[in-house]
């Protein structure tokens, strides 16, 4: 099981490879909701209730691949946000 990132802001990049007619905006919300193991959850929160308010820098990327068919490829990169200032 993954350990949640340390408390604080999180910078996140999500990249999707989808077929041309795929409504990819429907994918990113569900993907973030499923990241509770990494973002953490509040005590008593259900499985799909990740602490997504921690994401303070979000990049969403889409590549269209006609050969993808029904397959969806997701790449993810995350880290604690630098809060020096």
Automatic annotation (TrEMBL):
Q: What is this protein called?
A: Uncharacterized protein
Q: Which organism is it from?
A: Parafrankia irregularis
Taxonomic classification: Bacteria, Bacillati, Actinomycetota, Actinomycetes, Frankiales
